[in-house]
Specification:
Blueprint: H1 10-13, E1 18-21, H2 28-58, H3 65-82, H4 85-92, E2 98-100, H5 101-134, H6 139-142, H7 145-162, H8 164-171, E3 180-181, H9 188-194, H10 200-233, H11 238-266, H12 275-299, H13 302-311
Parallel strand pairs: 1-3
Antiparallel strand pairs: 1-2
Helix pairs in contact: 2-3, 2-4, 2-12, 2-13, 3-5, 3-7, 3-12, 5-7, 5-10, 5-11, 10-11, 11-12
Length: about 325
Amino acid sequence: MSSKPMNVSSTETNSISHFILMGFPSSPEMQLLYFGLCSVVYTLTLMGNAAIVCAVQWDRRLHTPMYIFLGNFSLLEICYVTTTVPNMLANFLSTSKSISFVSCFTQFYFFFSFGCDEGFFLCIMAFDRYLAICHPLYYPCIMTKQLYNGLVIFGWSCGFILCLIPVVLISRLPYCGPNTINHFLCDPVPLMLLSCSEDTITQFVYSTFNAIFMIGTFLFILCSYALVIVAVLRMPSATSKHKAFSTCASHLAVVTLFYGSIMVMYVSPGSGNPVQVQKIVTLFYSVITPLFNPLIYSLRNKEMKAALRKVFGTEMPVHKI
């Protein structure tokens, strides 16, 4: 039985003013190497996603629901990586590696809010493809400007609303030492482990929240694309099949990257994953995945590639097809 008190005064709760983010402990030379690699990845991620945002904004041919959702998703990716990577880069060059209590939970809130928003946007994009492919005749009537604008607002706002509950609960846990987080960001699992008391209610709420969100959105996406695949297989035209599969393949690749790693990480706090593995997996889905998404969405999309050529000023003379 734990000797830690379950009720702690507010004075004890506020006894920690900052946390230490260990990141990836190594020699100064390796820290510089990590800094250089992550700086390159971060810069490429910003450039790739910003290019898609600009392409959707500037090319009127892309002012359709599918590309509007994609543009918002790319803007969301920029926000997502910016919540963690700049602080991680600063810590590579820092000896203290400290982050204030308020800054830590602010990072936690925005990181998970944007992460939830990504899940909702993937659901919205799956729903859009389901309507466009399974109900093409009714699609213009259903996916009106009012609806897709409402879906965009829904996608951006839901994460910020839902994540308030776990962030507030975890921030109200008593923290009286130690204050070292064996991670490169303010992740909720190590934060809960640092608490002076083991609050099973908070852990249960957090685990339930993650399970409902991730499993619910993942099943919605799978069902949507299952119906899409069935509809595509019934198409008589091979060209139509290829175009539909090409679009859906890009979406499914991003879904696989997004959900493949976080399913293991966040459904069960303290699930027994080695700390180093947790950090690497978190690095993958929080830094590497946003780098791949622009490539996945643009490489097999003629309209997007043409719009990106306009953005970068490399558009070739138009050839009649």
